[in-house]
Amino acid sequence: MISPYTGWTREHWADLADRLLLSARRHASPSHARVSFPGAPGGYGPDVDALEGFARTFLAAGFRVAGEGGRDPLGLMEWYARGLGAGTDPHHPDRWVRLDEHGQAKVEAASIALVLHLTRPWLWDRLPPRVREQVVDYLAPAVGSAYPPINWVWFQIVVEQFLASVGGPHAQEDIDAGLALAESFEREDGWYADGAERAYDHYAGWALHFYPLLWSEMAGRAPDPRHLARLERFLDDAVHLVGGDGSPLIQGRSLAYRFAAATPFWVGARAGVGSPGLLRRAASGIVRHFAEHGAPDEDGILTLGWHGPHRAIAQDYSGPGSPYWAAKGLFGLSLPADHPVWTAVEEPLPVERGDFTRVVRAPGWLVSGTRADGVVRVVNHGTDHSRPGSDLADAPLYARLGYSTATFPLPGDPLDQSVVVLDEEGRASHRTGFTAGPVRVLASGTLVGSSRWRAHWGEQGPGPDHGYSRAGAPMRHGPEVEVVSVVRGAWEVRLARLTGQAGRLRVGGWPAPEGGAATRVAGGPGLGESGTEVAATPLGERTLAPWCATPGEAEPGRWYAAALLVGDGGQPPVFDDWKITWPDGTIDDLPDLRLL
After folding, report:
1. Quick one: CA torsion of 161, 166, 168, 174, rounded to 10 degrees?
2. Crossing angle for the helix pair 129-139 and 153-165, to the nearest 10 degrees
3. HEC profile for 508-571?
4. Which terminus of the chain has fewer CB atoms gathered within 10 Å of its CB, N or C?
5. Nearest 5°: phi and psi at 423?
6. Are β-strands 504-508 and 529-537 bridged in parallel, bridged antiparallel, or unpaired?
7. Do the strands 365-370 and 356-360 form a parallel or antiparallel pair, or are they unpaired?
8. Is the separation of the CB atoms in 508 and 547 below 8 Å?
9. What is the DSSP secondary structure assignment for residue 317, as one 8-state letter?
């Protein structure tokens, strides 16, 4: 059996792509230029939404036809060619928002350019000269334009490289400057940050590792050996971040893109790095996870949500067409049926082979996977989508102390996966701008990491919500908070202390949906109060977040300890005199932590 873990073959992937594409046609304008999916408009308005609907489904169509060597029984190229002609015609009533009219068009232009490259013999080369001229004119405002210094830099590179390939206007200095900026995003062990901040999320895989390979193909160059080495090293971490049920790590913005999280595994396959059977296992696990949980829905639509619809998951830039960036996760269909990634036998994920612990240095993550429950957990001491000392309110998708494949962070002020100081009104403090300590593996295999910050209270600032922190009014400040995490199996022993002044201390645990993975917080001496908050998340209307706290003000300088569980962990570890006895019998002596 070629797919012993997921049961998914290339035919399943092709069927999913065809279902998405045929469903999209029902929501297209007569010219095919606008694909307007049902739902309230996004923050950029219906014109941008309709362009996203075209460009993002166009990705799926392009991958589908490219992998079939031009075979096109659904007439995808003809269908989208008609939309290209209308959308790029400045006088057509369905014409697209231009790159010099709205920044989001710069994003969608990159998808259009990529597909025109991948399908060139069957689409671009067959377009009437007038339409080709219109497409070039539509893309031309990318030349010399300003792009945000994040993953967007690749959108300019890709568009201008395509223009260069068809004899259109382009500026080599734009491409060179963009490539240099993209190199500045490199971090340890093959990771990229999404810009200059501590911004680590799925964009590392579905954007920052995706575009370099496609750009090199467009430029007619062999892939840069540095990019390949980084990709191979990154994938070694990435396969450890997929749960046994196929769920990707639930962390970071743009989660409505869902199985776009499979993209880097297909990039590895196309580049010839990594084990084909393991790469397909990871990718198929992710897409099957969503397909079995209502994405796409019964009408073949990808709604704004995680499993089913959940509008609250959206950022301000998200509209009804936005979820179709999930089409990036179908990139494997651009590879023919006889490619090794489709013919190799699936291999088990790391979490299916056995329990593991792993340090991921760039984002400052302690990773623990447990075979019994298939849950992968990340304890976060390095990521907040900000900078040290930035003094901002926490973004729930970045600044929590923990993320997993089985839990969804709660919105609002920190409760779940947090160590906070409560003010006189009971409001929780924030940690964004923390100073990251070292993350390391002990000789026993146990993981240790730490961070420290000055507790601060305040609100997110004005402006659009893009999923990360926004500067606002000056913060109120409290005591210094220091946290040390010691992780083994399904358990974390979390040590916390306040310095400088007192305050009431609260430790929040994992926010697990009722009926899902077990969640528990066991407070040690001094953390005598406890409770469980209930909230709605995309994983369940009743999501349980346990916590423990000091009854009154914490004693400055005193270490408080709590044990946190999500999953199947048995009895809690015992912390006594700086020794931890774990459920598996391992004993870790931590005398050096006394000196922190």
Report:
1. 10
2. 150
3. ECCCEECCCCCEEEEECCCCCEEEEEEEEECCEEEEEEEEEEEEEECCCCCCEEEEEEECCCCC
4. N
5. -80, -175
6. unpaired
7. antiparallel
8. yes
9. T
φ, ψ for residue 589 (rounded to 5)?
Answer: -95, 125
Distance of CA 504 to the CA centre of its chain: 34
Distance separating alpha carbons of residues 63 and 332, to the nearest angstrom = 8
Centre a 10 Å sphere on the Cβ of residue 10 and count the other Cβ atoms it contains.
Answer: 21
Q: How many residues does the chain have?
A: 596
Degrees (nearest 5) of the Cα angle 581, 583, 589? Answer: 20
Q: If we measure between CA atoms, which residue out of 415, 374, 425 comes closest to residue 521?
A: 415
Phi, psi of 593 (to 5 degrees): -70, -20
How many Cα atoms sit within 13 Å of 428 on the Cβ side?
22
Report the C-alpha gap between 561 and 579 in whole angstroms.
12
> Tokens 């750009």 — which residue?
215
Cα–Cα nearest to 582, from 506, 488, 511, 518: 488
Beta-bridge partner residues of 375? 370
Closest CA to 503 of 591, 448, 429: 429
Longest dimension (CA), the chain: 78
Contact of 414 with 394, CB cutoff 8 Å = yes
Q: Listing from the earlier edge strand, what are the strands of the sheet with 560-566?
A: 435-441, 447-457, 476-488, 491-499, 560-566, 519-523
At CA 103, angle to CA 463 and CA 58, rounded to 5?
120
The whole-angstrom separation of Cα 519 and Cα 498 is: 26
d(CA 15, CA 17): 5
Q: pLDDT of the chain along its 596 residues, tens only?
A: 999 999 999 999 999 999 999 999 999 999 999 999 999 999 899 999 999 999 999 999 999 999 999 999 999 999 999 999 999 999 999 999 999 999 999 999 999 999 999 999 999 999 999 999 999 999 999 999 999 999 999 999 999 999 999 999 999 999 999 999 999 999 999 999 999 999 999 999 999 999 999 999 999 999 999 999 999 999 999 999 999 999 999 999 999 999 999 999 999 999 999 999 999 999 999 999 999 999 999 999 999 999 999 999 988 889 999 999 999 999 999 999 999 999 999 999 999 999 999 999 999 999 999 999 999 999 999 999 999 999 999 999 999 999 999 999 999 999 999 999 999 999 999 999 999 999 999 999 999 999 999 999 998 877 777 777 888 888 999 999 999 999 999 999 999 999 988 899 999 999 999 999 999 999 999 999 999 999 999 999 999 999 999 999 999 999 999 999 999 988 999 999 899 999 999 999 987 665 44
Residue corresponding to tokens 């259109």: 168
Work out whether the CA dihedral 165, 168, 172, 173 comes out positive or negative. Answer: negative
The pair of three-digit structure tokens given for residue 365, joined into one six-digit string: 């993550």
Residue (of 436, 423, 261) closest to 331 by Cα position:
261
- Residue 304 tokens read as 């704004």
Token readout for 374 is: 């298939």
Residue reference for tokens 């960036």: 325
H or E element at residue 104: helix 104-118
Burial of 594 (0-12, 13-18, 19+ CB in 10 A): exposed
- Tally Cβ neighbours within 10 Å of residue 3: 18
